[in-house]
Amino acid sequence: MKNKFLLGLVLTAIAVFLVACGGGGEEAVAALQGQVSDLEAQLDEAKSMAADAEAKLDEAMSMAEEEGGEMAATTNTLATVQERGTLLCGNGAGASPGFAFIQEDGSWEGFNVDFCAVYATAVLGDPTAFESVVTTGTTRFPILQSGDADVLSNNTTWTFSRDTALGFDFVPTVFYDGQGMMVRADSGIETLADLDGGSVCVATGTTTEKNLADVFRQLDIDYEAVVFEDTGDTTRSAFAEGRCDGFTTDTSALVGSLVLFDDPSEVKILPEVMSKEPLGPLVRHGDDNWFDIIKWATNCTIQAEELGITSANVDDMLGSDNPVILNTLGVEGDLGQAIGLNNDFCYQIIKQVGNYGEIFDRHLGPSTPFNLSRGVNAQWVDGGLLYSPPFR
Amino acid sequence: MASVTTTTSSKPPVQQRGTFSKKFNLNYFLQDNISGSRGLLIWVSILAIVTVGLLVQQFNNAPGRTWVIFGVWAVAVLGTVVGELFTLHIGATRWLKENMFNNVSNSLMTLFLGLFVAIIGSGLWSWGVANATFDPALTHPDVRTFDGASWGVLWGARKLLLTGLLEPEHNGRVIQWTLTILGLWALSFIGTRESTRETGWGTWVRRIANVGWVLSPFISYIFLAGLEYTEPFIDTRRFILGTVLVVAVMAILWFFKVIQLNPMTTAMWVLAWPAAYLLWRGITLVSHNAEIFTPIDVDRWGGLLLTVIFAIFVNILSFPIGILLALGRRADVQGIPYWILWPIAIALTAWGLYTSTFGNCIGTPSFLCENVNLWATSRNTVEQIIAFWPLLIPLATWAFLRSFDGNFLQAFSVLFIEIIRGVPLITLLFMAIIMAPFFLPEDSQGLSNFWAVIVGYTIFSSSYMAELVRGGLQAIPKGQYEAADSLGINTLQKYRFIILPQALRILIPPLAGAVIGTFKSSSLVALVGMIDLVGSTKAIIANSQWLGLRTELYVFMFVLYFLVSSIVSWYSRRLEDQAGLGVR
Amino acid sequence: MAQTTVNPPGSDANIPPPPDEQGIGARVLSYIFDIRFLGVLGQIAFILLLIVGAQRIFSNFGSNVDKLGRAQFICRDGRFAYRCAYDFMETQAGFDIDDTVLDYVNTDSFWWALTNGIVNTFRVGLLALVATTFLGTVMGVARLSENWLVSKLSLAYIEIIRNTPILVQLLLLYFSVILALPDIKDAIQPLNLPIYLSNRGLIMAWPQFMSSAAIWLAFLVLGIIQFQVMWVYLSRREEKTGRESNKFGWGLAGFLLIALIGWFISASVSDNEGLLIADNARIDEVDDFDTVMLSRAGINHLSELETLPEEEITAVTLDVCVLRESSSEANFVNRLARKGIPFKISRNGSPAKAMDNYVDGSCEMFAAPVSILAAERATLENPNDHIIVPIDEQPLVWSIPRFERFNIIGGATLTPEYFALFLGLTIFYAGGLAEVVRAGILSVSKGQTEAARALGLSEGQRLNLIVLPQALRVIIPPLISTYLSLMKDTSLGVAVAFQDVYLVSQTLMNQSGRALQIMIILMLVYLAISLFFSSVLNWYNDRVVIVER
User: Fold this and answer.
1) Which of A310, C211, C490, C542 could join C272 via S-S bond, C-beta 3.0 to 4.6 A?
2) DSSP code, position A171
3) What is the DSSP letter of B583?
4) Could you give the ipTM of this predicted complex?
C-alpha cells in the first residue's frame, strides 16, 4: 500500500511540474477570457437593443478580430532584430548570378545580397550582420509571413494581390525589369508570335508563368509550357539542353544567365517586353515602423547617388554646405530617430556598403560579365525611374 | 527452361573419358532446347533474332570489341560442347556448362548480356575515364572537354559539397568531429572482433567505445553547433526541474520493479542531473572564455555534413518515438468505458449543434467563431450540410468504441501512424517549413529551417519505425508473452526484460534498412530548399566555373550514397552475426 | 466491453481480495489502485493533455493567422470570415498545365487545375504500378536464374538501385539521360516507324476516336455479347453431343465479323466532318483534290510532284485551317497524306480565329465538324459563295506525327517529364519488388514442386495451382506497401517538372498565396489516395491469399 501512496505522490509531482511548465499560457488565457467577456457584454447589449441583432453581432465579431489583428501588428520587428543581433534576409535559392549567388566558399554575393547589407547597416550598423535565408519560389512568402525572415530581398515582383491579399508591403522598387524571352539564335524566331507551335520553359511560382499564359492567350498562339519548380538553374539548363524553344523570365535574369551558356552567341533575347516587373524588397504588412526603416534605407542609396555621395567621398560630404546632403547624412535634423535608428544611418550605409550606383556597378555593371546598362534603372535626372522622395 | 543438354537417366553408364557421349541424342536435344513447346520455340526464336541483330549491329559499330566478345563466347561454347559430348569436362568447362551454357537459350542469353554489358561499360568507360579530365583547372566551359566527364569539379567544389554554407573557419572543427566519430567506430570495431572479444584489453576497448557512443551526441553538438554561454551560470529552475524529473523517472522505474535501488544507486540517480548539468555549464564557460567552441548557426550546415547530420539526428530521435508508438499500438490496456464516453459525446454534440446551427458564438474562442456559426451564414446546400458537422462526434465515438474498445492509446497510435504514412514525406517537410512557425507562440523567434525539417522528418520516420518495431514485437512467439504473464510480472518488466531484448535483436536487419532509408530520403530536403548534398548541386552548377557539370555531380552522389548504404548494411550484417540472430 | 476483459495482461498482482474482508477505506483504495482504473485515468489524462496542446497550437495559430493576410478570408460580399478561406479556388487559375488528359485551359478555375493534377498523378502512378510489377517479377525471377550472368546482373541491378536515393536516380535519368537524347530535329526513328524519340519525349502514331466511334463502340459491345452467347451455346452443345468445337475461335470470328460490319456502317452513316471551301474552287468531294492539284501543278500524275522544284511545290501546296487538337485535323491530314497531296496546316485556337484566316485568304479551306462550319458559314458576307464539302470518316483514324516548325504535331506524346518520372519510379520500385518476388518464390519449398511433378501436373498447372498461391501469400503484403510508397512518391515529379498534384498545388500556392489551405487539400488528397489503395489491395489480399495454418 505504501508503494501506491508513493506512486500517487510521484504522479502529483509530475502533474505540478506539467502545470508549472504550462504556466506561460495563463496570461494568454486570461487575455482571451477578457476578450470573450467583452464580447459577451457587447453581445448582450446588442441583444437588448434587439434592433438589428445580426448586424451588431457581425460588427462585434469583426471588432474582436481587429483587436486580435492589432495585437499581431504591434510586434516590433526592429526590437526583435536588434535583440537577435542579426537580420534575417530572404535571398532565394542562391543560384541567380549577379543578384544572389552562393560562391565557392559558401558565402553569398550579389545585388540583392548587398541590399541585405544595406538594411543590416541601417539597423545594426554592421554590413555583415545579416543572414541569408534560403527560399524557393514556393516557400518565400510563407517564410516572410511567419517571421522566418525579416525582409525578402529576392527579386519579387510588386503586384496588387501580393501587396494586399498576401499581407506584404513593398518598399521602393530597386530594379525595374520586364519579362523577356530567350530563343536560340538559329531558330529563326524574331517575335513572340513566331513561337507558334513551340515549347517554352518557365519557372513556377513566379509572375512570369502567369504573364506567359496571358500574353500567349492574347496572341492566340499554340504553345507548350514546360513548368519547372525551381527559380534556380533548372529551367535554364532544360532550355540549353533543347527541351524548349523559348526560355522566359525577367530580362535581367536572362541577361545574367547569358554567361552561363557554353556559347552565349548561340542564344538571343527577343526585343519584346512581355510585362512590367518592378522588383523590390518586401516586408510583412502591419509593422509600419519596420516598413519605414526598410523603405528609407533603400531610398538612402538612391538619394545618395542623386546627390553624388559615394562611399569614397562620404566623409568629405559631411562638411558640405548643402543642407540636403547634411539632412540625408544625418548631420542635421533627427530623421533617423523618428524611425528608431541612429541619425547617421544613411551615412553608415553609404560608407560601408555604397550608394545605388555603386551596388549596381559592383554586381551588374560594365566591369562584370553581365554588363547591364542602367536603362530605366537610371536616376530620374538621367531619364530613368529611380526617384527618391526628399530626406527632409 | 530447366532442361539440360543431356537427359539424366537414373543410372548413367560408366563411360570412358574422351569417347563420344552415348547419351547424346539429337532428337532429344532439339526437343529439350528448341522445339519442346510452342512457348519455348517462340522464346528461343525471339532471343536468337534479337541477339543476332545486336551482334550484327555491334560488328558494324565496334568491330574489335565485338570480335573479342564473340570469340570468347564461341570458344567457351565450343569447349563446353566438346567437354559435354566427349566427356572431357575439366573444372572450368563444367562450371561454364552449369552456369552459362546449360541450354541453348541460356547460351544466347549469355552472349546477349555480354554484348549489353560491353556497350554500357564501354560507354561509361569512355565518358568517365578515357575521355575524362581530372584537373580542377579544366572545368571552365572554355577549356573543358565535352566528350567526357570533368571530374575536376568534385575537387574544385569540395567546400560546397562537403559543408555547404558553413563558414570556412569552422572546417577544422568538422574535420575533428569526423575523426572522433571514425575513431569511435574503429574502437568498437576492434573491440568486437572475434580475436579480441574475449581478451581483457578487448573488453576495455569496448567499454571506452560504449562510453564514447553514449557521449557522442553531446560531443557532436559541441563540435558542430558550438556552445553559447548565457547568464546566469546556473539556471535554478532548470537545475531543480531536471533533478525532479530524473528522480521521478527513477521512482516510476523502481515502483514497477524495473530497477533495484540501494543507497549507492539512489545517490547516482539523484546526483545524475546536477552533475551532468554542472559539467555542461562548466564546459560552456571554459569554452566561452577561451573561445574554443564558438556557436555555429545550424542553418549554415550544408552539403554532405547536413545529409549526415539529418540521418543521425532523425534516426536517433525517431527510434524511441517509434518504440513508444509501437507499444501504444499494441497496448491492450483497459479502454475508457462507454458510460463515460457517451454522455460526453452527446453533450458535445448538442453544444456543437446549438452553436453551429441555431446558436451564436457565446463561449467559443473568437478565432473559431465564424467557423462554428455555420447555419446562419451558409450560402448553399453544401454549407448547410456542413453546419451539421457535430453529428460526426457520435459517429466517431461509435467507431472508436467499436474498433478500439475505448482504448485511446491504441487509437491515437494507429491514427498517428496511418495518417503520417499516408502522405508523402515531401508534403510533411513542406508543411514543417512553411506552417510550423504559425503554430508556435506569436512572440517566439520563429523556427529555423533546419529544426523545422528535423521535426517534420522525425514525425515521418518515427511512424515507419513504429511499424518496424511492431513487426519485431509480433515476431516474438506468443508463448513468451504468456510465459511472462504467468510469472506475474508487470507490463513494464515484461517488456523491459523479456520482450524488447528479443525484439531488438530480431529488429537489427530491418532497422539497418530504416537507417539506410532515412539516409537516402534525406536527399528530399533539397526539394524544400535546403542546401544538402543534392541541394548544393544547384549552387555549384550555377557557378560559371562549373557550369552545367550536373551529371558528374549526380554520379558522384550516386556512388557516395551507394557506398555509405552498402557499408551500413554490411555493418548491420556483422552486428546481426554478433547478436547471434537465429541462434537460440 | 470493459467488463469482458477477463485477464488483462499487464495487470499487477493486485487482484482485490473479497470485499467483505476489508474495511471500506481499503476497498476504495484497492479500486483506485487497480491497474485498469489507473489505465483509464491515464488515458483520460493523455486526452486532456492532447486537448490542452491542441488548444495552445490553435490559439497560437489564431493569433498568428493575421500574418497570412486578412484579405485571404474576405468573402465575395466583402465580409470577413474564415469560412471564405476556400473561395479563391473558384477564381481563374491563369497558368498552364501542358500535359493533361482532361480539357484544361488557363482560364479554368483552380479547382479544375487541381483536378488535372490529381488525374496526372494517377496517370503516372498507375502505369508505373503495372510496369513495376512486370519488371520486378522479371528481375526477381532473373535473380534465381541458373544462368550466372543473368543472376549476377540482376543482383547488381537490385543492389545499386536499392542503395541509392530515388531523387538522385530521377535527376540523373531526367537531366543526364533523357534531356541528353537528340534534339527534336534529329529525333531517333526506329525502323522508319512513326515513332520519334527525342529530348521532347516519345511521340508516336496513335488511334484517335472520331465522333462516329460511338456507333462503332455499340457494335463492339454487341460483339462481346455475341461472344458470350456463342460460348454458352457451344458449351451446351458440347455437353449434349460430346462433339468438341473451337469455342474461342468461333466466338472471335463472330466478334470480328460484327466489328467489321459495325465499322462500315458507322463510317457510312456518319457525316459529321466537313470542309468549308469557296464554291469556285471546283471541289465537290474529296477526290476532286487530285484533279485540282494536277491542274494546278500542270502534271499528269501526282507522283510527278517529286520531280518539281521546291518553289513550285510550295506554290501549289494547299493551305488548310483546322482547330487545334481536333479530330478533324487527324482525319483530313490523313486523307491528304495518303493521296500524296502537299498541304500546310494552320492550327487555330477558336473557330472565329480560323474564319478570320479563311476570310483574309491565308488558308483556302477550313476543316472542322459540319455543325461548326454551318454556323461559321452563316457569318460570312456571301454564304452562298462557299460550300461545305462532306468528308467521310472512319470510327478510328490514325493520328500520325508530322514535323511542324518547332515540334512534332499529332500522335500521342509521352513528355520527357512523364517519361522520366514513370521510368524512375518503375526502376526504383522494381528493385525492391524483385527482392520480394525472390523471397516469395524461395518460400515455396522444393518439396512442393517435386510433389506437383509426382502428381503429374503440367508446368503451367504447377505454377498456377501450387507455387503461385503459396508464393503470393508471402509476396502480397510487402507488395501492397510497395504500391503505396510508389503512389506517394509520384510527388517527386516536382524534381523533374512533371505536373502532378504536388507540383500543381505548388503553383496554386504561389499564384494565390494561400499556402495553408492548399497544403490541407494536398494532404487530404494524398490520404485519400493511400486509403483508397490500401483498402482495395487489402480486400484483394483477403480474397486471394490462402489461409495460413
Assistant:
1) C211
2) P
3) -
4) 0.87
